[in-house]
């Protein structure tokens, strides 16, 4: 059993008590490792009360938690305010955890320095800033050819760690991300592999009814968006497309908030709310929903929409729509077509007419029942591609 250290983002806790796509994938790896026991895993994460409670039933993974001082939490809010209100930065939300992440890197580096002889392998999950913990104190020298970088997103800053990254094994969530790595870094193509995401199928609460909870009439078709309320996710364009529909008896359900259960409301979220108020149709925003309850929203929705207007690497919502057997409308963005093809979903062009394209797709799925039946049949054929066991086995095959 290999002793493996995993560095997380330093932004969202693990286990995924406050959601987060990457963090939920880490949870899957941890849970499958409990069954197969290929690794003795140590995960370094920021502290969260609920996350720590979730570790009590886990035996083959230990969690090293880094507690963020209150002063740094206040500095996070200040940095977000400056980035959002004064500097008007498009990525202002990333500043909401700036000092937490810096503190995480510093503390993780100290931990590695003190314990680096105990580990045979290091996994860096997603954010390249975590490599700074390996760079500090020359920690990386103790793990030559034993660093695995699991990349979930495109990044344009290597934080001065390019040479370390280039010596790592790299697994990517899609070929789209693999191509971006090969274009940015001087790495041998044999170093880079694609590991497609998967999702856990959550239990369903038979007593929970979203129509009763949110006052949605029984004869309404429910279109549902899952995700953070940020520009890249395309929720504003989806609302505009939804508002142009002439059909009645329809509801748009927006499941998510601008930040992971943080008490932060962005300017973009305010634009979204204003667009909702203009609608002649019913639009309901749930705010943050705990991931443990998310299955109820999938199974009781009629159609899932992923309107990404950025190069979305591999959104879990696409896989979840397949796992929970829901019709899908999505844009042709990043790695999305690698997970859902034209014969299992309605894929639309992401261009300057994206609102009209989404509107046409919404209209089509409301009125073309034979198409919906065909999509449903084809979706059954690809569902088997996203098993947790296969994901775990493919992941651990790279830890050699």
Structural topology:
Elements: E1 2-7, H1 21-36, E2 39-46, H2 49-54, E3 61-66, H3 70-86, H4 98-115, E4 121-125, H5 131-135, E5 147-151, H6 162-166, E6 169-172, H7 175-184, E7 192-194, H8 210-214, E8 221-226, H9 235-243, E9 250-255, H10 267-277, E10 282-287, H11 294-299, E11 303-306, H12 316-323, E12 328-331, H13 336-339, E13 346-348, H14 354-367, H15 369-382, H16 388-396
Parallel strand pairs: 1-2, 1-4, 2-3, 4-5, 5-6, 6-7, 8-9, 8-11, 9-10, 11-12, 12-13
Helix pairs in contact: 1-16, 3-4, 9-10, 9-14
What does this structure look like?
This protein has 400 residues and is of the alpha/beta class. It has 2 domains: 2-195, Rossmann fold (3-Layer(aba) Sandwich), CATH 3.40.50; 210-385, Rossmann fold, CATH 3.40.50.2000. It is 39% helix and 16% strand. It is built from 16 helices and 13 strands. It has helices spanning 21-36, 49-54, 70-86, 98-115, 131-135, 162-166, 175-184, 210-214, 235-243, 267-277, 294-299, 316-323, 336-339, 354-367, 369-382, 388-396; strands spanning 2-7, 39-46, 61-66, 121-125, 147-151, 169-172, 192-194, 221-226, 250-255, 282-287, 303-306, 328-331, 346-348. It has a 7-stranded parallel beta sheet, with helices on both faces. The protein is globular, with a radius of gyration of 21 Å. The protein starts with a strand and ends with a helix.
Name the descriptors.
single chain, 16 helices, Glycosyltransferase, alpha/beta, Glyco_trans_1, Rossmann fold, seven-stranded parallel beta sheet, 400 residues, transferase
